[in-house]
Every structure is written in C-alpha cells, then in structure tokens.
Amino acid sequence: MLASWAIPDEIVARGEVPPWSHDPDTFAMDDTTDAGDPVFELARELLPLEGGTVLDVGCGGGRSSLPLYPRARRIIGVDSNRAMLDRFAASAESLGVEHREIEGRWPDVAVEAEMAGTPLERVDVVVCHHVFFNVPDLEPFVVALTAVARLGVVTVLPRRHPMSAWNAAWKHFWNIDRPLGPTSDDAVAVLHALGIEPEVIELPRPAVSRHAEDPAALVRSARRRLCLTSDRDDELAEWLRVDPPDFMREVVVLRWPGGLDHEGP
Ligand SMILES: C[S@@+](CC[C@H](N)C(=O)[O-])C[C@H]1O[C@@H](n2cnc3c(N)ncnc32)[C@H](O)[C@@H]1O
C-alpha cells in the first residue's frame, strides 16, 4: 500500500528537490513544543520517577523526545538524516540532557550493532513519532523497537498518510489521484499479527512548529511535495490561500509493553 504512493519518475525529475525530503527546521524544538502535551504524558507514565532512559527512533530535531527531560535523564536519538541528528544534538546540549546520536536506518542500526557484538543499550522507553508511514517493512521495525525497550514503546502516527494533506493539490496541479491508504488501522493490524495488543489512543494533533506555519515556508514545502518549480510560487501561494492543505487534526498513539520487562526495571 505504501508503494502506491510512489510519484512517477518523470514528475520527480521536474521538481527542484526530492519530494519526500524533510526540512529540519520543521522538526526542530521551538517555543511551540508543549512538554505537557498528552503524547508526552503517555511516555512519562512508563518512565521511572528518576533517571529514565529513552530511545527516539526517527528523532528528527528532537521534538518527539527532548520534552521528556528532566524525567528522562538520557535520551538517544536515531535518525538516517545527519542534519536532523545535528539539530537533535544541539537542542539536547542546550537543555543539558545526557544524549547520544546514532546515524542510520532503523532497524538496520540495531541489527548491525547486534551482529558486531555490541548490541544497542536497552532503554526504559522507546518513542517513535511520525515515522511509521516511512516504513514499508513494519514488522522487523516494530520487533526491534520492542526488543530495545524495557518498559514500553510509544509511537505516534496520523490516521492517514501524512502526504494525504496534498491529495487535492496533486489533482489540481498534476491531475493525479493519490491513494487513500494505508491508515493507522493497517499499522494496528501489523501489530496484532505480531501478537502485540497496543493501547490505541486518539489525541488532538500537538502544535506544529512556528516554521511550518510561516506562509513562505508553506509555499516552499508545497513546491517540494508537489514537484513544482519556483516559477509557480505565485500560483501556488494563491492555491494555498483558497485550498489550504488538509493537515491532520488528530494523531493516533499506539502504546505497548517493552520486550524485556521480565528482567525488571
Ligand atoms: C516526519 S520526521 C519526524 C521527526 C520527529 N520524530 C518528530 O516527530 O518531530 C521523520 C524522521 O524519521 C527519520 N526516519 C525515517 N525513516 C527512518 C528509519 N527507518 N530509520 C531512522 N530514521 C528514519 C527521517 O529522517 C526524519 O527525520
């Protein structure tokens, strides 16, 4: 189902930047990041009262885990994108939280570490926000998340594919009908097939970053997502004014126990 989101090569070739790339500014910590958001409370409920450790898979700039400091004393970020990891490290440093960065794809980095005889350190809680829709092979991804978490895993995803927000624009600019699935229900089905019965909690979407709300940033983002060129910016800005992208209004949290809790905290 994820493969059906592929964009035809000839359209990708017309764009100025890869349509799937993320802008690190959008995922950086800023003053819109609300540490009291229920998404973080769901992770704090699992963490020990002091000295907790967290692994954030697909950490981006750290919006998904750094708000857990000071309850979490040590936070490890994994990301395949170096620029994102640099943001994560800088924000962690300025907060004063103990941190480590691992560059690479999950679960490959966990498997490679295991094979090299230096398995990843276990953590109390694994968080993984807004990554599932990037993962075509979800089963080994989830198995590895669960194995490294002692107490629990908290994942967050939108109900629909995050690029669904641009479906109407794809129809308008390219006359292409974009897919409607998969949805978060398909992710839950994958977990069930693995014998995991997650808690499924729907929450309002946390605040987006200031950067994402900036109209100029929205035009740049739309241009990238839609493989358009900057000479169409005025047309794009007008389209966005009348037909703003249908961004998700709620997120789905999937939370399940860690794989190693039998060893005790
Ligand atoms: C949409 S961003 C979310 C960032 C952050 N978790 C947040 O919620 O703000 C997705 C991030 O996951 C990373 N990513 C996607 N698939 C990955 C994988 N298999 N392994 C490691 N990082 C991945 C991307 O590089 C990107 O930084």
Automatic annotation (TrEMBL):
<dbReference type="InterPro" id="IPR013216">
    <property type="entry name" value="Methyltransf_11"/>
</dbReference>
<feature type="domain" description="Methyltransferase type 11">
    <location>
        <begin position="55"/>
        <end position="150"/>
    </location>
</feature>
<dbReference type="InterPro" id="IPR029063">
    <property type="entry name" value="SAM-dependent_MTases_sf"/>
</dbReference>
<protein>
    <submittedName>
        <fullName>Unannotated protein</fullName>
    </submittedName>
</protein>
<dbReference type="Pfam" id="PF08241">
    <property type="entry name" value="Methyltransf_11"/>
</dbReference>
<dbReference type="GO" id="GO:0008757">
    <property type="term" value="F:S-adenosylmethionine-dependent methyltransferase activity"/>
</dbReference>
